[in-house]
Write a structure and sequence with these properties.
Helix content is 42%, strand content 16%. It is an alpha/beta fold and 288 residues long. The longest helix is centred in the N-terminal third of the chain and has 23 residues. It binds NADP nicotinamide-adenine-dinucleotide phosphate.
Amino acid sequence: MSAEIIDGKAIGAKVREEVGRDVAAFTERTGHKPGLATILVGDDPASEVYVASKRRTAGELGIESFHHALPADVASEEVEALIERLNTDDSVSGILCQLPVPDHLDGVHLTGLIDARKDVDGLTPLSAGYLALGREGLRPCTPAGCMVLLAEAGVDLSGKHAVVIGRSNLFGKPMAQLLLAANATVTIAHSRTADLPAVCREADVLVAAVGRDRMVKADWVRPGATVIDVGINRSDDGLHGDVDFDAVAEVAGAITPVPGGVGPMTIAMLMRNTLQAAEMIAREGAVA
Ligand code: NAP
């Protein structure tokens, strides 16, 4: 293997440690802890695990957590009223509505009700707008985590060609915006892209967020390129990314593994966003 392995586990731990230190300083300075409110509708086991892990990490870093578990058949009005209440609750710095929500609810509508200053997932239209305009705001956790991985791997993005495979609102689009803000030349590829392997071969930095097991092959990758694998695909033979890791690691200059690459960054960045939200609110005064 020739590629440097970008160790998301170690980098995620470092971010969490920094956030823990900064949370302690914030609490000392203001006399109150940052607070993260989590909303979980229904009893989807994967979502329960994700939310439990977010709450546990918050507790470890000195962030107060407020959990709201709602029944699967809860009325939209009830979730809306809860979000409105949390928006004006001074002990809550960040609000997270775990997606997906049950079919009778509209996840985009609900997350859109979160005050942008408390939008720690960075997914509301206002947060997306701030990102597009290059204004201060909370950035979506997984793409922000990829930017930290690239920085820690010493990748200077200025003038580099970055190719992002995937154009979801959750990942692909904000990832492309963050790369653009870092002065990369950005191509967004998707399911209609013609000759995807050729497009990928143009990349100095290749980011794959598709959800297709080991789709990106070694001959799609320019020798020496940096490869960030966001995909999480479970199959009978284990957990794999969107990148054919073993073969691509022979060609790439640096690569993230799955697991242990992008995954650990998401919660770390959520914690960083919660602290950032608390700091923004403390600076601007109480939420109206
Ligand atoms: P998504 O909403 O399903 O989007 C997938 C994107 O891939 C779409 O833009 C789609 O194109 C594109 N695509 C599908 N098939 C393709 C193909 N054959 N060639 C080129 N592009 C193709 O998924 P997502 O939410 O962005 O997530 C993507 C992956 O990242 C998933 O495996 C997910 O589990 C993982 N993920 C991981 C984390 C983490 O914390 N590590 C966080 C978020 C997501 P169209 O738009 O044309 O349909």
